[in-house]
């Protein structure tokens, strides 16, 4: 029988006390999630640097497109390492990242709850650059040194497109050395410490500004277009599934904001480039040159669009055929 005081108080059992402590701890652990569920929710985001993709976040935040569409975009984390960008996303330290879609598809197939939300830019911006005295074609890369960010989708896509269209594996015909980011690869070519580099805009145009004899000897976007007749989506918005599940309608809101943002950048490119050039770590003239080159193409498309899905499925079939992906994209990969 439980001991009773004269005032009627009954001392709780040890089991009841421990149960209460455990329940309290559970509430404390859940508190950040519960707090984040109260609107408007702050979206944790990130991208790689240097590069143009941070501008999408900056325009959304400054023009208050997030508030307009019912969410709050947090200060983006700018990662100098592409590997860290992806690792943070997998660890759920980021809700949303701008990156290429194929590494996200790999992680989706591996069980990470992530989805493709929308496309922003095409693969015309990526390729292999070399100096005038260096290799001039894929065939001439044999025995050469190529600097490349090997953890990036850019590298995987470029390698696959070369295998698909030229029948050569650059890892078999050349020596590939890792670069932490695309700027580093171009810098190594400029310094003549590599014969070629896998890179993307605006770092390609930045390299050409520093060394005018640099040229593009292979374009992944052109190779895909020549083969399929379609523009290949490349840099995309990728999102964790949990944030969509806990915030009904958020996918539509995010798409509306990024679609409007892409339209603003398209129509006000020079002014936006001038304003945000310091954030990209690329000077404004280089951004304008990249734009004028035709390689730097914006192409917003919601992942719910059947045409976007069809193009990415076709591209994923190529990457699967070339052993870059384990299998092609499926309907569940695309955020509804």
Spans where pLDDT lies below 50 across 5 or more residues: 1-10, 16-37
DSSP helical segment count: 15
Please count the beta strands (DSSP E, at least 2 residues each).
13
Given helix and strand content, the structural type is alpha/beta
Shape: globular
How many strands, what sense, and barrel or not for the largest sheet?
Answer: 6 strands, mixed
Q: Bin the helical content.
A: 40-55%
Identify the strand order in the major beta sheet: 4-2-5-12-6-13
The secondary-structure element order is HEEHHEEHEHEEEHHEHEHEHEHHHHEH
Q: What's the N-to-C terminus distance?
A: 60 Å
Strand content: 15-25%
Determine Rg (CA atoms, Å): 24 Å
Fold and architecture overview:
Helix content is 47%, strand content 17%. It is built from 15 helices and 13 strands. The longest helix has 24 residues, at 14-37. It is α/β, with parallel strands linked by helices and 336 residues long. The protein starts with 13 loop residues before the first helix and ends in a 15-residue tail after the last helix.
Briefly characterize the structure.
The protein has helices at residues 14-37, 54-62, 65-68, 82-90, 101-109, 153-166, 170-173, 182-190, 203-210, 220-228, 241-245, 250-267, 269-280, 284-292, 306-321, and strands at 42-43, 45-48, 72-73, 77-79, 96-100, 114-121, 126-130, 145-148, 175-178, 196-200, 215-219, 235-240, 298-302. The chain is α/β, with parallel strands linked by helices. Helix 2 (54-62) crosses helix 13 (269-280) and helix 8 (182-190) packs parallel to helix 9 (203-210).
């Amino acid at each position: 029988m439980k001991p009773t005081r004269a005032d009627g108080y009954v001392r709780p059992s040890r089991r009841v006390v421990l149960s209460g402590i455990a329940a309290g701890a559970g509430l404390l652990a859940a508190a950040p999630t519960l707090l984040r569920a109260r609107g408007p929710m702050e979206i944790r985001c990130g991208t790689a640097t240097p590069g143009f993709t941070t501008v999408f976040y900056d325009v959304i935040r400054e023009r208050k497109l997030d508030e307009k569409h019912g969410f709050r975009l947090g200060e983006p984390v700018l990662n100098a390492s592409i590997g860290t960008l992806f690792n943070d996303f997998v660890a759920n330290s980021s809700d949303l990242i701008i990156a290429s879609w194929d590494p996200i598809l790999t992680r989706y197939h591996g069980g990470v709850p992530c989805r493709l939300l929308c496309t922003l830019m095409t693969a015309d911006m990526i390729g292999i650059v070399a100096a005038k005295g260096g290799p001039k074609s894929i065939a001439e890369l044999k025995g050469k040194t190529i600097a490349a960010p090997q953890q990036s989708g850019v590298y995987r896509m470029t390698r696959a497109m070369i295998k698909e269209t030229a029948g050569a594996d650059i890892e078999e015909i050349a020596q590939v050395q890792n670069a932490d980011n695309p700027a580093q690869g171009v810098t190594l070519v400029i310094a003549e410490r590599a014969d070629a580099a896998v890179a993307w805009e605006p770092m390609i145009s930045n390299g050409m500004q520093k060394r005018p004899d640099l040229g593009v000897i292979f374009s992944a976007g052109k190779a895909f277009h020549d083969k399929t007749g379609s523009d290949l989506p490349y840099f995309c918005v990728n999102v964790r599934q949990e944030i969509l599940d806990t915030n009904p309608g958020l996918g539509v809101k995010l798409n509306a904001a990024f679609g409007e943002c892409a339209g603003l950048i398209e129509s006000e490119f020079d002014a936006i480039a001038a304003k945000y050039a310091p954030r990209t770590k690329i000077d404004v003239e280089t951004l304008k040159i990249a734009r004028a080159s035709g390689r730097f193409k914006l192409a917003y498309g919601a992942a719910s669009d059947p045409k976007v899905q069809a193009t990415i499925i076709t591209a994923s079939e190529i990457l699967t055929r070339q052993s870059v992906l384990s299998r092609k994209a499926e309907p569940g990969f695309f955020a509804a």
